[in-house]
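Training component of the fellowship. As part of building independent skills, the fellow (R.M.) carried out the full modelling exercise for a liganded target. The chosen ligand was flavin-adenine dinucleotide. The inputs are recorded below so that the supervisory panel can assess the work.
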Amino acid sequence: MTVPIAIIGTGIAGLSAARALKDAGHVIQLFDKSRGSGGRMSSKRSAAGALDLGAQYFTARDRRFVEEVQRWQLNGWAEQWKPQLYNFQSGQLSPSPDEQTRWVGTPHMSAITRALLDDFPVEFSCRITEVFQGKQHWNLLDADGGNHGPFSHVIIATPAHQATTLLAAAPKLASVAAGVKMEPTWAIALAFDTPLNTPMEGCFVQDSPLDWLARNRSKPGRDTTLDTWVLHATSAWSKEHLDLPKEAVIELLHGAFAELLHCPMPAPSFSLAHRWLYARPAGSHEWGVLADADLGVYVCGDWCLSGRVEGAWLSGQEAARRLIEHLQ
Ligand code: FAD
Ligand code: NAI
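Fellow's submitted model of the complex:
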């Protein structure tokens, strides 16, 4: 019987590793604590349609990722997003067009990871709490006391903090992961019955509690019934207001949005807030992957590379490549 490889995390890094291993003929088994795939690249179903509350768009600079995104585009999972971009600085809002190609999942960000998940064996709503070594193989324990295994290798594809807690059996990797700080982001969505009177479709924000805003209907394939906006707070503001109730976060960021647009803003007909505790790495690293090949443990994710969708995908590829290389 072939002993499968366990992959913890079905974000873009875990799915990237899964695809590469499957293509090389390996048997894999995925786990995720959430009810679906995508992690920080997922969308949330809401009364205003599916909303991208995490990754807003992605860029592709590495040749390998450019080719992968072309494949997604050909399959209808991703399309270019060409927003009217603005910049807000020192109280001034000004158009800020550029030539950068930006991609989004269609009809929502989750479409990409959902398609990549394919028919891989996966257990959702399964939070892994321990990775431990048996006589020859690895086993995983989940939060409900379930035991999974045996596995020949383990790939941990979670944010750094969650990876650290799973790395008791690989202390060298644990100490590297423990040194990575990840910062939070408060994200909110505001939906208006009457479209806001602005041509703006995306905005990079400075000198404000806000960091970024995006007009949902400007992305291809989105529901256009309401004029829905996704707003992200800065890491600093999010840290400072980490435990604020969601209603208060919505009120404060709605106020910052009105200030930015310099106009009275109607009350939204729908709003929601989501707190990403481990949104982005505080610093940048170029590890690609953390590996203990003799133990058979690999750690990947955006924090091992660029803190972006592209970095997460490349990190997953690197984990698979290193594992396959060690088997040869
Ligand atoms: P994740 O997507 O975090 O996946 C990890 C998975 O592991 C999750 O599904 C989680 O549920 C699961 N998991 C964690 N612990 C366990 C456990 N113990 N057991 C089982 N499962 C577990 N990037 C861009 O390129 N462009 C952007 O515009 C952009 N904007 C962003 C805005 C926000 C608010 C956030 C939060 C992120 C943004 N990013 C952006 C970053 C991008 O989303 C990430 O770099 C990328 O999605 C990370 O993928 P990943 O697979 O490394 O991790
Ligand atoms: P990108 O090239 O569009 O943006 C990179 C940065 O360049 C932007 O953050 C912005 O500061 C600046 N910039 C780019 N175009 C601009 C324009 N037209 N006008 C003014 N400033 C402009 O995309 P890339 O490199 O793929 O980065 C991804 C984005 O994801 C970044 O904006 C980053 O901040 C964001 N992100 C947010 C996270 C969060 O938790 N909120 C986590 C990870 C990434």
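The panel noted the following from the submitted structure. The chain is about 25% helix and 30% strand. The chain has two domains: 5-43+112-179+285-327, 63-109+181-281.
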